[in-house]
Amino acid sequence: MAGGTWTTQNKVRPGVYVRFQGEAAPSGAVGERGIVALPLKLSWGPAKKVLELNAGEPVFEQLGYELTDEALLLVREAFKRAKKVLLYRLNEGAKAAATHKQLKVKARFGGVRGNDIQLVVQTNVNDNTKVDVITKVGGRTVDNQTVNLAEQLTANAWVEFEGTGAIEANAGLPLTGGDDGNVVNADHVSFHEAIAVHDFHTVALPSTDAALCSVYAVFVKRMREEEGKKIQAVMAQYPTANHEGIISVKNGVKLADGTVLNAAQATVWVAAATAASAMNESLTYSAYEDAVDADVRMTNTQVEEALRKGEFVFVHHLGHAVVEQDINTLTAYTPDKGQPFSKNRVIRVLDGIANDMKRIFETTYVGKTNNNEEGRQLFRAECIAYLDQLERLNAIQPFDAQTDVLVAKGEASDSILIQLNVQPVDAVEKIYMKVKVK
C-alpha cells in the first residue's frame, strides 16, 4: 500500500495519505520598551553614526570615558531608566596627533579626549632589540605592542600609526591639537536621517533652542503620521508644540552630589523614563533617581500654570525630586483628540497598540495569509489575544470581543480594515476626600 502526505486529493494508488496541520495560535506579544535615542556633542567616539549602548555594558573604549566621568553625565542619566541608548555623536572635531622622529601618531577620533593620549616607547626587558610601544589614555594603559620596526605597529582602538624603521625610546609623547568642533542645526537633521531607520521609543533634545525644537517637532510628527513609528520627543521649554508626541520639560533637578541639571539636561532622564515605562505605568510622582530637589522650586500657582500649558514639571517632595504629572504638550483638544490624549500613559497604550500590531502583522501575516474570511478571522483572533494581554496588564478597560474588534475586507483585494474600540486605563492622580466631623 502507498502512503505519504497530500495537498490535493489526486492520488492514484490505494493507501493512507496524512497531512498534519497545527491549529492556528496567536503569535504576537506586547512589545518591550526602554529604547531612547540621544544626540550629543561628545569628545570621543565615531561621529555621525548610531551607536547602540546597552545598560550595564562598558563604554570606555567606545566613548573614551567611564560612565562615571563628568563627560558622560547625560549618558549616565539616560541609563538610570533606559535599557538601550541609541547614541549619535553630532560633532566630528579635529584629531589630536604627535610625531616622534620617524613615527607619526594620530588619534582615531576627533575631540579633546585625544589630548589625553600619550605614547610611551621603552626597550623591551626580554629582548633589547625590540621596543614596547605603550598607548595610555589619562594615564591608563590601553594598548601595548612589542615590535622591532615602526611598520610593524597596528592601529588600536585609540590611535593610528604611520612610519618606518627603528623607533627611538620616549618617556612620554603627548598627542595635541584635539578639538571638539561645533554643532550646527544641519547636524541634527543628519541625526534624524540616521535614526529614522532604527526602532526606538523616545528621543531627547538637550537644548532650549526654539528653532531646533521646531525641527525635532516636525521630525516626530512625520515619524508618527507618515512613517508609522509612534515615538515621542522630549525637549525643554517648548509647550507651544501642542502635540501628544512632544513632551516639554519645564525645569531640572539637583542631584545628591551637588550636580545641578537644568531643564535641557533633564530631558534625557525624562526621555529614558518615558521609554522605559510600560503601558500600565505612569510617571506621575515618580522620583528622579539620586535627585534631592528641583533645580527651581515653583509655587502652587506656578505649577498649575505650567500644567495648563502642557509642561512636564519636577517638584520637591519629601527630600526627592518627583514628576508632578506625566503629561505632554497637547492642550488644544479636538473631538478626535480629547483630554486623555494629553496623558502620556494613555499615549503609551495607544502607541503600543499601533507599534505592536504593525510588528505582528508584518512578521506573521503580510504575504503569508489569504485575504478571505478565514484569513481575516485569524488576524481578528490575533487582535483579541493581544488585547486580552493588555486587559490583564490593566492597560485597557475590559472590552467586548464581539463588538470591539472588527476585521473586514478593505477596498483593494489585498487590504483589510481593522477597527478596535479600546479605553486605556489611566492612573489615579486626584483624590477628593470628604471628612464629616461629628
TrEMBL record:
Phage tail sheath protein-like beta-sandwich domain ranges (all copies): 91-179
InterPro entries given in the database record: Beta_sandwich_Seath, Gp18_domIII_N, Phage_sheath_subtilisin, Tail_sheath_C
Pfam families with a match to the protein in the record: Gp18_domIII_N (PF22671), Phage_sheath_1 (PF04984), Phage_sheath_1C (PF17482), Phage_sheath_domII (PF17481)
Residue ranges annotated for the Tail sheath protein Gp18-like domain, each copy included: 33-90
Domain of life of the source: Bacteria
Residue span, Tail sheath protein subtilisin-like domain: 181-329
Record-annotated Tail sheath protein C-terminal domain positions: 336-438
Similarity comment: Belongs to the myoviridae tail sheath protein family.
UniProt name for this protein: Phage tail sheath protein
